[in-house]
Amino acid sequence: MSGLASARQVSRPAALPWVPAVLLVLTAIAYPLTDAGGAVRDAVSWTIVLLGSTVSVVHATVSRGARTGGGVLLVTAATAVVFESVGLATGFPYGEYSYSDDLGPTLFGVPFLVPLAWLMMAWPSWLLAHRLTHGRAARVGVAAAVFAAWDVVLDPQMVQAGYWTWAHPRPSLPGIDTVPLTNLAGWLLAGLVLMTLLDLLVARTASGPDTGDGAPLLVLGWMTLGGAVAHAGWLGLPGSAAWGVLLAVPVLVALAVRARR
C-alpha cells in the first residue's frame, strides 16, 4: 500500500507539465491558421511562449525540486537579457537587428517575451542533451547545438511575422534569406554559456524523484518538426522547413539508438 501511495504522489506532480504542453501543441496548430499580421496571430504567439516557458519551469520544479525550478527561471531570464541587450546595443554576437513594437513592454530594450522564449527553448534542449550524452562537456555542447538548431526553424517565422528584422540578413543558410549566419553563431555562443550555467545549477540544486521528461521533449519536438510542417504547408517557408527536418534527423536517430541500447 505504501508503494502505491508513493507512486500516486509521484504521478500527480509528474502530470502537471503535461497540461501546458498539450495546450501549447493545440495553440501551435492554430498559429498558421490565423491571419498573418493580425492581433489574433500575435495573441497566439504570446500564448505559445507563455505555455512553453510554463512547461519548463513546472517540469524543472516537479522533476528536480523547487530550487532547480526557480534557478532555471532566473538563470535563463538573466542570461537572455544580458545577451539580447548587448546584441541590440553592439550587434554582437548575433548581428545587427531590431525588435518591433508588436512584442510589447521591454527591459533594456529587450521585450519581456524574449527571455520567456529562451526559457521555452533552453530547458528542453538541456534535457535532450542529458538523455543523449555522458559528461558535462558533451552535455553542454549538444544542448547548445540543439538550442541553436531550434532557432534555425523559429527565427524565419518570427521575421516573417514582423517581430524583428535584420539589418544585414546575408550571408545566410541556403533556403533562408532573412536571417544571417551570424545569428546562428551567436546562438551557439549563447547556448554554450547558458547550458554551462544550467548544468552547474542542476548539479548543485537537483533533488527529489525524476518524474520523466516527456512534456518538455514534446514541446521541443513539436516546435521543431511541427513547425517544419507548418512552414512547408502553410507559412511559405520551405527553406526553414527543410532545415528543421535535416537538423532533427540526427537527433531522432540518436534517440532511437539510445532507446535500443
Automatic annotation (TrEMBL):
The chain crosses the membrane at residues 12-31, 43-60, 72-94, 106-128, 140-164, 184-203, 215-234, 240-257. The keyword Transmembrane applies. The keyword Repeat does not apply. InterPro entries: CruF-like (IPR007354). Keywords: Membrane, Transmembrane, Transmembrane helix. This is Putative membrane protein.
